[in-house]
Amino acid sequence: QRTQATRKEAAPSIAQPAEHPRKVVVIGGGWGGLSAAHHLSKEPGIEVTVVDAAPRPGGLVTDGFTTPGGRPAEAGIHGFWDEYHNIFRLVHDELGLTGAADPFTDYAEQGQYSPAGLEAV
User: Fold this and answer.
1) Which end of the chain lies in a sparser environment, N or C, as judged by fewer CB atoms within 10 Å?
2) SS3 of the chain: helix, strand, coil, percent, to 5
3) Helix (H, G, I), strand (E, B) or coil at 50
4) Residues 14-61: pLDDT tens digits?
5) What is the pLDDT of residue 31?
6) Contact indicator for 73, 65 with CB cutoff of 8 Å
7) Residue 22: CA atoms inside 13 Å, Cβ hemisphere, count?
């Protein structure tokens, strides 16, 4: 019985700089896409482009509408609780958004609005 040795080549690692820069496209400018792009951009030899269908980044965090009374309202519940350590580490520690630049607010009980008006409290 004859055995054949197979040669397995290791797949190139993202952490190893390539001879030519690797170009990565991240589809989606929400929290997940922006986080992935941020972390990939720190790797040597990686060029990152973020593509999103919306005119501004943020995904679900940026959706919303204006109530008939002219008040801006979110279209859904978008919150980051204490368990989202990765988000707070990214925003506060890595991006340095603290103090007046901190984009997060404290928890506040609020109503849920739709284009039809107040839906729930």
Assistant:
1) N
2) 25, 20, 60
3) strand
4) 555 567 889 999 999 888 898 899 999 999 999 999 999 887 777 766
5) 81
6) yes
7) 17
Side-chain-facing half-sphere of 96: CA atoms under 13 Å: 0
Look up residue 37 and give its amino acid.
A
Q: How far apart are CA 98 and CA 103, in angstroms?
A: 8
Bridge partners (DSSP) listed for residue 65: 73
- SS3 of 79, please? coil
Check if the beta carbon of residue 75 is closer than 8 Å to that of residue 64.
yes
- Amino acid identity of residue 30, one-letter, is G
Question: Of how many residues is the chain composed?
Answer: 121
Distance of alpha carbon 112 from alpha carbon 64, whole angstroms: 11
